[in-house]
Amino acid sequence: MEPTAEANSARDKLGRHLRDLRISVTDRCNFRCPYCMPKEVFGPGHAFLDRSSLLTFEELAELVAVFASLGVRKVRLTGGEPLLRREIESLVAKIALVPEIEDLALTTNGMLLAAKAQALASAGLKRVTVSLDALDQEHFAAMNGVGARVDKVLAGIEAAALAGLAPIKINCVIRRGVNDTEILALVRRFRGTGHIVRFIEYMDVGTTNGWKPEDVVPASEILEKISSEFPIEPIDPTLPGEVATRYRFSDGSGEIGVIASITQPFCKECTRARLSADGHLFTCLFASNGTDLRDMVRSGATASQLAQRIASVWKARDDRYSELRDELIEMTARQGQPANLSATPVAVRPPRRRAEMSYLGG
Fold first, then answer.
1. What CA–CA distance (Å, rounded) separates 299 from 211?
2. Residue from 88, 15, 16, 44 nearest 270 by CA
3. What is the largest CA-CA distance in the chain?
4. What is the phi/psi pair of residue 8, to 5°?
5. What is the pLDDT along the chain (362 residues), one digit of tens a residue?
6. What is the spatial distance between Cα 328 and Cα 340, in angstroms, rounded to a whole number?
7. 3-class SS letters over the chain
8. pTM value?
9. Which of 43, 51, 66, 151 has a 20 to 30 Å separation from 314 between CA atoms?
10. Which residues contact 353 (CB under 8 A, 6 or more apart)?
11. Which own/partner pairs from 140-143 qualify as long-range (CB within 8 Å, at least 24 positions apart)?
12. Residue from 239, 227, 166, 228 nearest 196 by CA
């Protein structure tokens, strides 16, 4: 039975279509970045998801086909670290067979990319985004929390380029006093290579990273620093709902991007759904709870039933956390509380913990 026409026309309460799906294939990672999986919390005793609770590749491909019937055209595989999932290229091959999916990408920390790049490309992956928070080895080790070497990530980027997984995007989360000195070094390193460096404002995702507003380096400050050495000019977004604001170098030597969830929220344009590794559907990066799709799949739900459930969740969506963040900071200041949003709820909602980025995918 085919998905219903009603499901196909679903928009959320703010009129936003469902166009992008981010899939966390594992909650495990070989890094312990402080802004995502601080090692003080995700230590040797941390209880990760049991393998039996993870969606199988067949289940994931089935769900992608259902999401595609609802309008999803772009799929990104994330984690945790997605390359830790065994034979991830077979999942790529299954998703690549879904005819409606036009863009299939993967976000990785790059440590295992050199060995996997060609297999991923051969399976049908279109491009990769690599997280790289510093070029200086000391800074990089501090950011990844396990002493990993930056040269392995650079080798992964090179292998991805040779495999044709382009354009390669390089994501850098900037935290004041930690790696804000790396901005120009990253621009110099990748300018002219065809790779696109995107600088991300440090966000209050989850409840464990100890986020504070004063740790944020605003996009405006990042752009000012870059333009002091390399003149840049804004360019139009590639697609509707794109989260990065794009800039090109005036001399034609490439582009950069900034993702400014803190100072320039883009909730109005958000068309993303997120699927956790154990099959829970989340409608916002800053959400607390998801909707269980795994049990529906494993109990034999039809494509139509799954589509109707997903559409009903999307129609009820009114998430705009980033737009409400300033209200919360003002509220906590009035109450004489520290404005630590990683442990504080949205002002208009009851107290709760938010899902961690490593669980629902960044």
1. 40
2. 16
3. 59
4. -65, -25
5. 344 433 455 799 999 999 999 999 999 999 998 888 888 888 888 889 999 999 999 999 999 999 999 999 999 999 999 999 999 999 999 999 999 999 999 999 999 999 999 999 999 999 999 999 999 999 999 889 999 999 999 999 999 999 999 999 999 999 998 899 999 999 999 999 999 999 999 887 767 677 788 889 999 999 999 999 999 999 988 776 678 899 999 999 999 999 988 888 878 889 999 999 999 999 988 888 899 999 999 999 999 999 999 999 999 999 887 777 766 555 555 555 545 544 444 333 333 567 777 778 76
6. 10
7. CCCCHHHHCCCCCCCCCCCEEEEECCCCCCCCCCCCCCCCCCCCCCCCCCHHHCCCHHHHHHHHHHHHHCCCCEEEEECCCHHHCCCHHHHHHHHHCCCCCCEEEEEECCCCHHHHHHHHHHHCCCEEEEECCCCCHHHHHHHHCCCCCHHHHHHHHHHHHHCCCCCCEEEEEEECCCCHHHHHHHHHHHCCCCCEEEEEECCCCCCCCCCCHHHECCHHHHHHHHHCCCCEEEECCCCCCCCCEEEEECCCCCEEEEECCCCCCCHHHCCEEEECCCCEEECCCCCCCCEECHHHHHCCCCHHHHHHHHHHHHHCCCCCHHHHHHHHHHHHHHCCCCCCHHHCCCCCCCCCCCCCHHHHCC
8. 0.88
9. 51
10. 207, 288
11. 142/178, 142/179, 143/33, 143/34, 143/178, 143/179
12. 166
Count the neighbouring beta carbons within 10 Å of the beta carbon of residue 279. Answer: 23
Record the tokens describing residue 321, joined without a space. Answer: 């956390």
Closest CA to 212 of 40, 327, 338: 338
Cα 102 off chain centre by: 18
The residue to which tokens 């650079």 are assigned: 154
For the chain, first and last CA: distance in Å? 33
78 forms beta bridges with 24
Phi and psi angles of residue 222, each rounded to the nearest 5 degrees, phi first: -60, -45
Tokens of 180: 């804000």
Task: Give the whole-angstrom CA distance, residue 176 versus residue 167.
Answer: 28
Neighbours of 331 (CB within 10 A): 15
Residue keyed to tokens 């060609």 = 118
Q: What type of residue is 182?
A: E
